[in-house]
Amino acid sequence: VCLSLNVLIFIIKAEDANLIIGLNRYGTRYFRWAKIKAKLFASSERTNINLKDRYRQLLKKGDSRVKKYYN
């Protein structure tokens, strides 16, 4: 399936928004990545490790929506 670049960017932004919701709701400690995956990315092919990596990339980019420390 060939998706246009605009569609891929939209999907990534939507996933980032869900990830940030999960971070605010569940935090980043211990097994919370798996909980974020189960609650907000259940139908996604992303793994909890993919989510953690994306969080680190957003931090590295300096995304203002992402905090370094969550509860």
What does this structure look like?
- This protein is mainly α and 71 residues long.
- The chain contains three helices and no strands.
- Helix 2 packs across helix 3.
- The longest helix has 22 residues.
- It is globular, with a radius of gyration of 12 Å.
- The termini are far apart.
- The model has no long low-confidence stretch (mean pLDDT 89).
What labels describe this entry?
single chain, 71 residues
Could you outline the blueprint of secondary structure elements for this entry?
Blueprint: H1 5-26, H2 32-40, H3 48-61
Helix pairs in contact: 1-2, 2-3
Number of helical segments with 4 or more residues: 3
Helix content: 55-70%
Give the termini separation.
39 Å
General shape: globular
Largest sheet, if any? none
Mean pLDDT: 89
Instruction: Please provide the count of β strands.
Output: 0
Given as residue ranges, the uncertain stretches (5+ residues, pLDDT < 50) are: none
How would you classify the helix and strand content by structural class?
mainly alpha
Q: Nearest-angstrom radius of gyration? A: 12 Å
- Strand portion: under 5%
Order of helices and strands: HHH
Brief summary of the model shown:
With 71 residues, this protein is mainly alpha-helical.
